[in-house]
Amino acid sequence: MSMTKIKNIKPLGFPWETKDPFLFCAYHKDDFPAGDEQMGMPKKEFIGRNIGQDFVIKDGFRMYHGRRVPGFPYHPHKGFETITINKEGFVDHTDSLGGAGRFGEGDVQWMTAGKGILHSEMFPLIHQDKKNPLEIFQIWLNLPKVSKLVEPHFKMLWKDMIPVITETDDLGNKTFIDVIAGNYKGTQAPDTTPDSWAANPANGVEVLTIKMEANATFTLPASTVKGVHKTLYFYQGDHLVIEENKIPKESIIEVNPEEAISIQNGSKEAFLLVLQGKPLNEPVVQYGPFVMNTDAEIQEAFHEYQTTQFGGWPWPEQEQTHAKEKGRFAIHIDGREEIK
């Protein structure tokens, strides 16, 4: 195997391994059935499931920690950020600071947990007459020590805000690149949250999702920022050819960021996620939903959560959902409301 442009190839696991400044990526793809009147799972689907701890794919889906609605009832975060990329289905967000929202296909939520927040991420089964498929990525991006105790903040990057670049090869085959973070060949992504590691262009953070038509070829440019890590996640398709290496689907491909990478797709549509960023090069101590720099800071985070609940939970349900008829929207902690 030629390793001029490829540093390493390994199979995808769960969650997906990432390089500093990212902590990991969880990819969720579930073929949820039609919902009931409360947008929950019909009771007949509960048979054979470990409700509340259901992470095994059965009949094409998982309930995760949900007991009625699939998803993740309220839970804390501190010291890092979540980037939730929605490709299909809906996510209902609520948090301890009064924020709320529903986002769907093509939307991205960027949340800086900072000094601490409780939030819920539920997957409402809105449709009663047909299935409710869901496909999302949740990427954990670390915060540097100087920003670990910033005020929590979330921002919606709505579908119509995110640039989509179309590149066509010599045979007319197309590749589509969604620019979620960073700058791709002069096309700038929307601004992130203000205290994000990605907010400073000098950190070279780039998040892209890519769809390649069958047999398409395109070139991923070299990074314009020195000292970054760059990783490709080939999660759906047939195979790729990169520098004469045939790479099977469900592969992690760590590449040399200083080189342009020519990618030839196989006979099926291919889907990739690209993560790039300059490493923080700081100690990482993680315990569940808390990511700090020292063991003492982790202990302090637990104590703070136990005593303050990061502001408490202002919602009637731990797995809070919004009205079925409500569309995509966001209510921010400053009271500002967006309706899409």
Tally of individual helices: 1
Low-confidence stretches: none
Helix/sheet category = mainly beta
Largest sheet: 7 strands, antiparallel
Q: What is the N-to-C succession of helices and strands? A: EEEEEEEEEEEEEEEEEEEEEEEEHEE
As a whole number of angstroms, the C-alpha radius of gyration is 20 Å
Into which percentage range does the β-strand content fall? 35-45%
CATH fold-level name: Jelly Rolls
The spatial strand order of the largest sheet comes to: 1-20-17-22-15-12-11
Specify the CATH architecture.
Sandwich
Whole-number mean pLDDT:
96
* CATH class categorisation: Mainly Beta
Helix share, percent: under 10%
Q: Give the overall shape.
A: globular
Domain Pirin C-terminal: 208-311
Domain Pirin N-terminal: 53-141
Cofactor: Fe cation
GO molecular function: metal ion binding
SSE blueprint and pairings:
Blueprint (H helix, E strand, L loop, with lengths): L5 E6 L10 E11 L38 E7 L2 E9 L2 E5 L4 E4 L4 E5 L4 E6 L9 E11 L10 E5 L6 E5 L5 E8 L1 E2 L2 E2 L17 E7 L4 E4 L8 E8 L2 E4 L2 E4 L2 E5 L5 E5 L4 E8 L7 E3 L2 E3 L2 H14 L20 E3 L5 E3 L1
